[in-house]
Amino acid sequence: MNKIALISILAILTLIVGAGAFVFLSKPEPENAISTKDSTLRTQNTDQPTAQSTEEPSQTAGSYVEYSNENLTKYSNNTRLLFFHAPWCPQCRELDASIAASSIPANTTILKVDYDTSQDLRQTYGVTLQTTVVKIDAAGEKVDSFVAYDEPTFASVESALLP
Questions:
Q1: Against a cut of 0.85, is the pTM above it?
Q2: Which of 25, 96, 100, 114 has a C-alpha 20 to 30 A away from that of 41?
């Protein structure tokens, strides 16, 4: 009888440890953590500056960069799309990967905006759902928007917002 009890206790402990490991490993990364998933932000041409660069950007290569006031100004001569991304959103991650894998048209910059921390931008552009992409003009005014929630691909964004 003691042997059965010991085996039962070991089985229960194994299940608890396994469940704990699963929960720990499936936790989302903190917003400010740098991961390989976030390293997909780039410019189409590796000779062009990235979001961290202080060099003047090319006005021909398409680019995908983190949103900042500096980048918003730096790419003001390009067609600018604001992609409202939430790291916890599966559709956002899918759209993020699709953008990173796509060839962004020349003179187009996609700025990745943190949906959770940018309430002021969400309010300014009337964004109520993550995966929203907002096209803005040179003055920063909203021209058009598209919610890519049901079809989170760059192709759907491109057909909706880019000529």
A1: no
A2: 25
| Cβ neighbours of residue 114 closer than 8 Å, sequence gap 6 or more | 31, 67, 85, 86, 87
Average pLDDT, the chain: 79
Strand 79-85 versus strand 132-136 pairing type:
antiparallel
Residue 50 reports pLDDT greater than 70: no
- Taking residue 52's Cβ as centre, other Cβ atoms within 10 Å add up to 10
Q: Is 153 exposed, middle or buried (0-12, 13-18, 19+ CB in 10 A)?
A: middle
| pLDDT, tens only, 54-89 | 444 445 679 999 999 999 999 999 999 999 999 999
Grouping H, G, I as helix, E, B as strand and the rest as coil, residue 46 is coil
How many Å apart are CA 25 and CA 19, to the nearest integer?
A: 10
Sign of CA dihedral 163, 105, 153, 127: negative
Q: Which CATH code, of 2.60.40.10, 3.40.50.970, 2.60.120.260, 3.40.30.10, is assigned to 39-44+58-161?
A: 3.40.30.10
**Kind and range of the H or E run holding 1:** none
The total number of residues shown for the chain amounts to: 163
